[in-house]
Specification:
about 300 residues, alpha+beta, Jelly Rolls, seven-stranded antiparallel beta sheet, four-stranded antiparallel beta sheet, binds 2-oxoglutaric acid, binds fe (ii) ion
């Protein structure tokens, strides 16, 4: 079988995380990258998402999944979330599929292959008191119980320098290594549907249970750089008091081994993900989280490609 081999230039190789960076990620659960996108690529992303917000689509989802985030102008000046932008817009996808992003993720996750899992376009309007701008503490694996992998990770990609005044993403250092306490399955509900104080409390309880201090680290991200976080790293973000919109994409990534699994919830139902009503089936009849239309491969190690 011939596959297209994503390759890196020598300049790109120099942008990969070092062994020390990979150790840091394993210990702390987050990594601030080097400049993985050129200014031209970031500007192209801004322009493509401007057109997306104006309604431009290359295709639309054939059905609307139950928990789809899909801001449209009728929702007004709240924080915007739009899922599946890599599916609906080729200009956005072209940049998100950059092999270098996958290669960085592969190093961090110690994986041979990286596929897109989801992409969410995010816009925090510059309204300092806007409650929807606050992202309560959560970790992404809570929404991914139907995924078998414990190594999934997210790249948070702002379209501009992004600091604390914009409400940048903030990591709870080392929290991916905590064991959970008191977790019931309400945590699988998205943070937008949940009480903020309850999530703050859950974070404090989990820290205490693990004898850990809560150390919150805002990711100060220069344009073209991105932060990566492990799927069990607690994170959230605050108000945008900058006077400018905070624009970004959360690029959720899966390692090659990830697959759908049955995960029973306490009410007897099975955990589900929006993909389950969209992607093709495996020969066993399960949702295929490797369906290239929704979950394209963006990186495969050379050894794996030639094997
Ligand atoms: O928008 C933010 O600050 C947080 C985004 C997020 O939850 C994520 O990237 O997983
Ligand atoms: Fe998240």
């Amino acid at each position: 079988m011939t596959t297209t081999h994503p390759t890196l230039t020598a300049e790109e190789e120099a942008l990969l995380p070092s062994d020390e960076d990979v150790r840091h990620y394993a210990e702390h659960g987050w990594y601030l990258s080097k400049k993985l996108l050129t200014d031209d690529e970031v500007d192209a992303l801004t322009a493509a998402t401007d057109r997306y917000y104006e309604g431009e689509r290359d295709r639309t989802l054939p059905v609307r999944p139950p928990k789809l985030a899909y801001w449209d102008p009728s929702k007004g000046p709240v924080q915007r979330h739009n899922d599946y932008v890599h599916v609906e817009h080729d200009g956005i996808a072209a940049i998100l599929r950059k092999p270098l992003i996958g290669a960085v993720a592969a190093r961090l996750a110690r994986a041979d292959e990286i596929r897109i899992f989801q992409s969410t376009l995010i816009y925090k309007p510059p309204i300092s008191g806007e409650p929807s701008n606050i992202v309560p503490w959560h970790f992404d694996k809570h929404y991914w119980s139907s995924s078998s992998s414990e190594r999934m990770l997210t790249a948070f990609i702002p379209f501009h320098d992004c600091g604390e005044e914009m409400g940048t993403i903030t990591m709870v250092d080392g929290s991916h290594r905590w064991s959970e306490t008191g977790a019931d399955d309400t945590v699988v509900r998205h943070f937008a549907e949940r009480d903020r104080d309850q999530l703050e409390e859950m974070l404090a309880e989990n820290a205490a249970h693990n004898g850990a201090q809560i150390r919150k680290i805002p990711m100060v991200i220069p344009k073209g750089h991105m932060s990566f976080h492990h799927c069990r790293t607690y994170h959230g973000s605050g108000a945008n008091v900058s006077g400018r919109p905070r624009r970004a994409i959360s690029l959720h990534l899966q390692d090659g081994d990830n697959a759908y699994r049955e995960f029973p919830l306490s009410d007897g139902s099975l955990a589900a993900y929006n993909h389950d009503v969209l992607v093709r089936r495996t020969p066993e009849g399960r949702p295929d989280y490797a369906d290239p239309d929704y979950c394209p491969v963006i990186w495969r190690d050379r050894a794996q490609q030639e094997g």
